[in-house]
Amino acid sequence: MTDEICLVGFGAIGALYACALERSSRAKITSVCRSNYQTMHEHGLMIVSDCIGTIDAWRPHRVVRSVAEAADRQYSFIVCATKCVPEVKKTTDIILPLLATLSSSSDTTIVLLQNGIGIEDDILDWLDEHNLGNTVISGCAWVDTTMIDGGKKVTQHGNEKLVLGYHRPQASHTKYATRFSKNTAIKQLDVFCDLLRAGSTNPEAAEDIDIARWRKVLWNASFSTVCTLTRANVGEVLATPTARTLLVEIMLEVLLVARASLPPSPAVTDVLSDSVCIAIIEHENQKSVFKPSMLVDLEAGRPMEVEAIVGGVLKRAKATGVAVPRLEVIYAGLNVIQRGLLGDRQ
Ligand SMILES: NC(=O)C1=CN([C@@H]2O[C@H](COP(=O)(O)OP(=O)(O)OC[C@H]3O[C@@H](n4cnc5c(N)ncnc54)[C@H](OP(=O)(O)O)[C@@H]3O)[C@@H](O)[C@H]2O)C=CC1
Ligand SMILES: CC(C)(CO)C(=O)C(=O)O
């Protein structure tokens, strides 16, 4: 069987995983290409990847200019791999024409490939409001991939892992909870992971995606934010003892919020224990010249994922009454920069 899949957000992550999905030979991808529509038509995309190899002039099955144009059919999966910047546009607003194609009889699954905490909230709210129970999956990518040459090339170096899982209804989603089917969610997660595996990438189905997301945001809320505020690479931050201490202190704050937000379980105790902070720091190459994507966005003058990466943690901190003084300072500092980046968009 061939799955029709729509991809919104044809950047580094979107293109890499769309290519993998299509290389499974069991998926047809419709890609919404915004700034790179013309480039895709004229040149296709060159992919140079340590996991899927080198592919010249790849073009997805169908390339369209807008989400509205893509919404002419039902899809098995709607994949969103834009940067998550609700300060510019909420995910529900970006994919609204596709959401409008959903009905109580459709099995369409929404997949969010984005960093951050609470990135699924507005989609679940929308489904609840519309009395729908479609599965929502999200993925945390542990990969270093970049789109370069004006959208003509994607590079991916080193290891790649995509941890995926489905989101359970939240307490406020009473209508979604009655429509949601855990069996369907598990089945759809399996299908998506199988397609990615067949396309030579390394998906991992998480028992509990919330735990996996908190584990991932530990890195983003600390390294990404401190590197961005100091405009320094990972090695430069690690070489500065006070900044190194700050990284650990931020991670400890995130861990307090994570443990207060999640139902207690052996997995939470295991994956989100304080000792993980030192392990994360020691795992980094101390001389790394790597720049987190938040800093890369700043340097390119693009809005950063402040709300998704820091705002999401702060929302959960407020809801659970956990004090996060360092994250508050980080958030305020990043928002000063973000205001400049948003400019007229505000
Ligand atoms: N790159 C990486 O190595 C990693 C990234 N991530 C996460 O993955 C997510 C995606 O990141 P990444 O691929 O790097 O991002 P990119 O900036 O490379 O790509 C984002 C893409 O989304 C498109 N887009 C944005 N808004 C819209 C819209 N309204 N309609 C249509 N297209 C839109 C952009 O198009 P346009 O060019 O027109 O703006 C761009 O092609 C982020 O959450 C990031 O934090 C996680 C781990 C690693
Ligand atoms: C942790 C990392 C580097 C992906 O592996 C990332 O998420 C980022 O740069 O934003």
The fraction of residues assigned to DSSP E strands is 15-25%
Q: Give the H and E element order.
A: EHEHEEEHEHHEHEEHHEHHHHHHHH
- Looking at the structure, what is the overall shape? globular
* CATH architecture annotation of the largest domain: 3-Layer(aba) Sandwich
The H-level CATH homologous superfamily of the largest domain, spelled out, is: NAD(P)-binding Rossmann-like Domain
Number of domains: 2
Which structural class best describes the helix and strand composition?
A: alpha/beta
Number of strands: 10
Helical amount among residues, as a percent range? 40-55%
Largest sheet: 10 strands, mixed
Outline the low-pLDDT stretches. Answer: none
The average pLDDT is: 96
CATH top-level class of the largest domain: Alpha Beta
Structural features, described:
Helix content is 48%, strand content 19%. 47% of the residues are buried. It is α/β, with parallel strands linked by helices. The mean pLDDT is 96. It folds into 2 domains: 3-205, Rossmann fold (3-Layer(aba) Sandwich); 209-345, Orthogonal Bundle (N-(1-d-carboxylethyl)-l-norvaline Dehydrogenase, domain 2), CATH 1.10.1040. The chain is globular. Helix 15 (306-320) packs antiparallel against helix 16 (325-342). Strands 1, 2, 3, 4, 5, 6, 7, 8, 9 and 10 form a 10-stranded mixed β-sheet that branches. It has helices spanning 12-23, 37-43, 67-70, 91-94, 96-99, 121-129, 174-179, 182-198, 209-230, 234-238, 241-261, 266-271, 275-283, 293-299, 306-320, 325-342; strands at 3-8, 27-32, 45-49, 53-58, 62-64, 77-80, 109-113, 136-148, 153-166, 203-205. NADPH dihydro-nicotinamide-adenine-dinucleotide phosphate binds next to helix 1 and strand 8. Residues 208-337 form the Ketopantoate reductase C-terminal domain. InterPro entries: 6-PGluconate_DH-like_C_sf, 6PGD_dom2, ApbA, KPA_reductase, KPR-Related, KPR_N, NAD(P)-bd_dom_sf.
